[in-house]
Write a structure and sequence with these properties.
Elements lengths: L2 H27 L11 H45 L12
Helix pairs in contact: 1-2
């Protein structure tokens, strides 16, 4: 990874963390606001923040599921490779019958 890509990845990670943190802070601060009616701008922002957090949760779930599937597939292939690698010939066993 080049230095430019690392900087971009770091900036995106910071922006992502700030979006999540500020959404949580806004929801906590405005949870008991005085609603002004049907077109309340605070309620609209609360809904937007909840949507951001739901999207983050869904993305985290997908990443965890993909990691679990990859781990299961790697462990299965590693077991089969281990079984194939351990043979009498690979262990230099002489069969003198």
């Amino acid at each position: 990874m080049t230095k430019k890509n690392r900087v971009i990845a770091t900036v995106l990670a910071v922006v992502f963390a700030l979006a999540v943190a500020l959404s949580l802070v806004f929801i906590a601060a405005e949870a008991d606001h005085d609603c002004s009616g049907e077109d309340c701008p605070v309620c609209e922002l609360l809904a937007l923040c909840r949507g951001v957090l739901r999207g983050v949760l869904a993305a985290a779930f997908v990443c965890l599921a993909a990691a679990a599937l990859r781990t299961a597939a790697l462990s299965r292939s590693a077991r089969s490779a281990l079984r194939a690698a351990i043979t009498p010939a690979s262990l230099k066993v002489k069969l003198l019958n």
